[in-house]
Design goal:
By secondary structure, the protein is an alpha+beta fold. The chain contains 4 helices and 4 strands; from the N terminus they run H-E-H-H-E-H-E-E. It has helices at residues 2-10, 21-25, 27-31, 44-57, and strands at residues 17-18, 38-40, 66-70, 73-76. Strands 1-2-3-4 form a 4-stranded mixed β-sheet.
Amino acid sequence: MEVAKKIRKLLPEAKLVFGGTHSILCPEEVLKHKIVDALCFSEGEEAFVEYLNALKNGITTPIPGMVFRLGDKMIKGAMRPLIENLDKLPWSDWNFYGV
């Protein structure tokens, strides 16, 4: 949360989206912090892309695998099914990070 606070200070309009093990196991604990704009509570490969597209087009409906703030409300989608064939996912592009 300390890093999120620093990011919010530098980029006040940025959407802060949380994911990973802690977000999946304890979403209520993460979401109690008002700084969190959205949380992915299942596999994020498809959910996060869908969330980004919804942001671009104006979010109006729940997104499977995501919880997000819409005004004063929290909008929670259904659990997204597991990706059965992980081989269909592209390899991560680490070039962005200089790796």
